[in-house]
Design a protein that fits this description.
Length: 392
């Protein structure tokens, strides 16, 4: 954004020096010495040029009122433009007059004029005299041309600060019933992948990558999935085959009807869009806070119902779920004491049964051949827990 600020200000930086230089040339043509012409020329335009600089810098003042990612993005731009204009003004009223006084040569008022530029200047003066004679007609014509040009260009003007970019790839977030086993989620998502290819055409889809579930370790911090019932599908289209916006529109109509038990959300793969959304998965994020979790969920459900009726609203969903199946384990402390078991022993056995002992007993083995380390822990076979009775 700093380079963008310099790109915006580059024209203004030159204009200030040009104004001072042209005015100095005008005083030279009056027969003044270069030093006197430089002094008088700079004094005359110093205040108008300063007003131009201040007016331009004031445009960027609202940046100080921004918050979040907007402040992070636009503050460097505003600072670069403001500092560059201030430095340019100092150079225009100090360095340019000094150079004019040193390097310009005096001109004689009786020197013959001519050339193409003189003829253009004379023609401009005659045209300006005519326009000033018919000033109201000139002003009306200028306003009419401006309005006509605006009406002609309006359909082509962008309406977003960061317009959508067709990157040819997007992400689909899919969520089945809470608590679904990861193997069942995989089976359902395989059907979704086939439906995506059918809806878009197998010759238009270049790559499909599905990430299911979450690993109960450090990788859990880097995935949007919250459990074995969550998944996200990365869809990459072949170049020139179909736009990602049109593809998302097609799938948004086809997938929910074909898979009524799965919740879908479609996101463009755009770093700019993610930054503008403050890292959130949707551009509009409504947060509900309260002392009672279930009351807050009820309010969220009502908000979801109302927002869903708004024209243009798509992928309306509640990110957090409270219906994940769970079992409450109550320990008989007397029997635990008779068996010599503590509370931590019971918890560690339960964790080992459902996950592994890696989460509380960090042990690893280093392969001297390739230098990689591998976690070592106890884990129960998944086939041992087919129902609740087996767990008991």
């Amino acid at each position: 954004m700093t380079l963008g600020g310099f790109a915006i200000a580059v024209g203004l930086l030159i204009d200030q020096s040009i104004v001072v230089l042209e005015n100095t040339e005008r005083h030279l043509a009056m027969g003044k010495t270069p030093a006197q012409a430089a002094h008088d020329g700079a004094i005359e335009v110093a205040q108008p040029v300063l007003i131009i600089v201040i007016a331009t810098c004031v445009v960027f003042f609202p940046v100080v009122l921004l918050t979040g990612i907007g402040r992070f993005l636009f503050t460097p731009l505003a600072l670069s433009v403001t500092l560059a204009l201030a430095a340019s003004y100092v150079m225009a009223v100090m360095l340019v007059p000094a150079c004019c006084a040193r390097f310009l040569k005096p001109k004689h008022s009786d020197a013959p004029g001519g050339g193409a530029f003189a003829r253009v200047q004379e023609a401009y003066v005659r045209l300006l005299a005519v326009l000033l004679r018919w000033r109201w007609a000139t002003a009306g014509g200028a306003v009419g041309m401006l309005v006509a040009a605006g009406l002609l260009l309006y359909p082509r003007l962008g309406q977003e600060l960061f317009p959508q970019v067709d990157s040819g790839q997007f992400t689909i977030r899919a969520r089945v019933t809470s608590g679904t086993r990861v193997d069942e989620t995989e089976r359902r998502l395989a059907e979704v992948e086939n439906a995506i290819k059918e809806s878009l055409g197998p010759d238009r889809v270049r790559k499909l990558i599905t990430n299911i579930g979450v690993l109960n370790d450090w990788p859990a911090a880097y995935t949007p999935n919250s459990g074995p019932h969550d998944a996200f599908i990365l869809v990459q289209l072949k170049e020139g085959s179909l736009g990602d916006l049109e593809a998302r529109t097609r799938l948004r109509r086809a997938l929910p009807d074909r898979f009524p038990g799965i919740e879908f959300a479609f996101e463009p793969n755009s770093m700019v869009r993610a930054a503008v959304n403050f890292g959130l998965p949707a551009p509009i994020n409504i947060q509900v806070q309260g002392n009672d979790l279930w009351t807050s969920m009820g309010v969220a459900e009502e908000i979801k119902r109302r927002v869903s009726t708004v024209s243009g609203a798509v992928d309306v969903r509640i990110q957090q779920r409270l219906d994940y199946p769970q079992f409450k384990l109550t320990m008989n402390r007397r029997k635990c004491a008779e068996l010599g078991l503590g509370v931590d022993d019971v918890v560690k056995n339960v964790v080992t049964a459902f996950n592994s002992s890696i989460s509380f007993a960090k042990s690893f083995w280093i392969d001297e051949g390739n230098g990689n380390h591998y976690w070592i822990g106890a884990q129960y076979p998944e086939a041992a827990f087919t129902d609740l009775d087996a767990l008991r």
